[in-house]
Write a structure and sequence with these properties.
The structure is a homodimer. Chain A is built from nine helices and 14 strands. Chain A is of the alpha/beta class. The first copy, chain A, folds into two domains: 15-254, Aspartate Aminotransferase, domain 2 (3-Layer(aba) Sandwich), CATH 3.40.640; 257-355, Aspartate Aminotransferase, domain 1. In chain A, strands 2-10-9-8-5-3-4 form a seven-stranded mixed beta sheet, sandwiched between helices. Chains A, B: It holds the Pfam family Aminotran_5.
């Protein structure tokens, strides 16, 4: 029996993606070869990489708008480093919004390159909300934010209107909602939430923003070099890119970001409604900043934890324990999460209420 | 019908590894979850990472000898950068042996950190041999070499006896032969030849060599931080690590490096014997430096290329075109390559001789 997987990441992908990826490990494209043993320079894999890069832009509405897509390695954590290396002017400054653990990590890396201004933080309230009133200095090289905070269950609903180049870590909500992606100069996202397995990072870069820092950049960290080699500066993570392509194809067939946004809203609304209705539970994140991807909540009375944990495990639910820095529960309901699984969780919450 | 895959990398892995990896994409360890959707913090995956790290050391005879194994991302190309960052003293020097394209790449990165002395190079003869007479200066932080040169088909048979810490890129021959691995202070290897799919890099680090440079290192590039987090500083490439573990388990069951070395020698000797015997062919690499992993050869008469290419394709052989910088042919016969496939290639070479 299949589990209801609410893991925060690596996390659920569509069942048809698992089936196709599994088959490709045995035989890719009827080539007689596994996807794991083909050359990344083979015609078939170059086609995979080209389609993946193009489809990422298409799904975000950035096709033909002067953007490049790359599939790199190292996780969002390596982009924390690549971003200031490539964008912060020598002797310059950058501005960051601190909305959670990963934003803090990005800030730490930027500080090695120059003055890093934290324009606002919600750290003093354990990142339970997204700061909204802040000024972005006019002399910074870029402004960096995190669109969705996986650990705390908050999400930015709006982004600042500014002439400063916007950089956004969208690791946990890319491809999940309709926004104007062309407001960003650079977007990056670790694959392992809405896009694919752990092992690749999508980076979207607006033309014309690179090579302005006066800084010497090691080639493997230089976005320009990756772009000039069409995301094959060195051997790419073939399987992770292929599986990401399968997931993007699934999303396109479903109707793209417009269609999935409606489904994501339905799932999140159902779950938040139950959290607000059920007297045993309360939400963690400030209501207006609630994430559509990661739903954080706690029991009002910790005494019920043991019985609740037993009940959801019996219902074949996995991965809803909260992050250690927040506690309680976190239900991650990414694109591939079926509404039926969300309903199973809601029914367990109702059953708990009826039981006690 | 299965192909005979002589690809230089990503390259052939054992058939049983493909089967087990394919099954794990559908259901990992009877968990009801795909290996692609489980948390890297789950008990089952932590066990995979721990076993992979321990087994890598065991297979190299380094168990209990004061070494740490890491499975990182970014390919050997990122290690070209991490090595000088972590080992070259601030204001110090490093020595490199230039035996091929990848060595040149490593040298280029090191130059960004300090004086990089190329102790010898075979560039002037298109890297067809491994330089042997050179001096390693006594004041360098480390000596870097490439044990096997995938593109040119040469391999180091001996390593310098020196008190200087030895660093070796073993991407294309790790786990393939018996050598005293404890002579090295640091070994790294991209997985995609003898270990697993593209997407992870094994790094082996001797205790006590880190934190001596006086240099500030960004955390994602700092080996110490990866060691302290047991190779989970950020989300690891779960599937690539798991598949690498499966390949290492296969090797252990076969009898380890001792056993595979004999098989590798048999395969290479058969093929080199035919190259030397068959009047239509000649080897590219200097005889004493011939690689047991990548066998480079050319037709004496290029007029036969068309018919030879047709013949090996009909025999279901793939991936033996030489690298563009060498031309001719390259048969990569890594650990997982069955002797039967080598025999098929030899038979095609003999058939060509009989035909013309």
């Amino acid at each position: 029996m299949k589990k209801h997987n609410f893991s925060a990441g690596p996390s659920i992908l569509p069942q048809e993606v698992f089936k196709k990826a599994s088959q490709a490990v045995l035989d890719f494209n009827n080539s007689g070869l596994s996807i794991l043993e083909i050359s990344h320079r083979s015609k078939d894999f170059v086609a995979v990489m080209d389609e993946a890069r193009a489809l990422a832009l298409e799904l975000l509405g950035l096709e033909g708008k002067g953007y490049q897509a790359l599939f790199l390695q190292g996780g969002a954590s390596l982009e924390f480093l690549r971003v200031p290396y490539n964008l912060m002017k020598e002797g310059g400054k950058a501005a960051y919004l601190e909305t959670g653990t990963w934003a803090t990590g990005a800030i730490k890396q930027a500080k090695q390159f120059g003055e890093t201004i934290v324009v606002a933080t919600s750290k003093e309230e354990n990142f339970s909300y997204v700061p909204k009133k802040y000024e972005i200095p006019s002399d910074v090289s870029y402004f960096h934010c995190t669109s969705n905070n996986t650990i705390f269950g908050t999400q930015m609903k709006e982004f600042p209107k500014t002439d400063i180049p916007l950089v956004c870590d969208m690791s946990s909500d890319i491809f999940s909602r309709k926004i104007d992606y062309s407001q960003f100069s650079l977007i990056y996202a670790g694959a392992q939430k809405n896009m694919g397995p752990a092992g690749t990072t999508l980076v979207i870069i607006k033309d014309g923003i690179l090579n302005k820092t006066g800084r010497s950049i090691p080639s493997i960290l230089d976005y320009s070099q990756h772009i000039s080699k069409e995301s094959m500066l060195n051997t790419p993570p073939v399987f992770a890119v292929y599986t990401s392509l399968l997931t993007m194809q699934w999303l396109k067939n479903l109707g793209g970001v417009d269609a999935i946004e409606k489904i994501n809203e339905t799932k999140a609304n159902l779950l938040y409604k139950e959290i607000d209705r059920n007297p045993l539970f309360k939400g963690v994140a400030k209501t207006e900043d609630r994430s559509l991807m990661n739903v954080t909540f706690t029991l009002n009375n910790p005494e019920y934890q043991e019985i609740f944990d037993k009940m959801w495990k019996e219902a074949n639910i996995s991965g809803i324990n909260g992050h250690r820095s927040v506690g309680g529960y976190r239900a991650s309901i990414y694109n591939a999460m079926p509404i039926e699984s969300v309903e199973v969780l809601i029914n367990v919450m109702k059953d708990l209420e009826n039981k006690i």
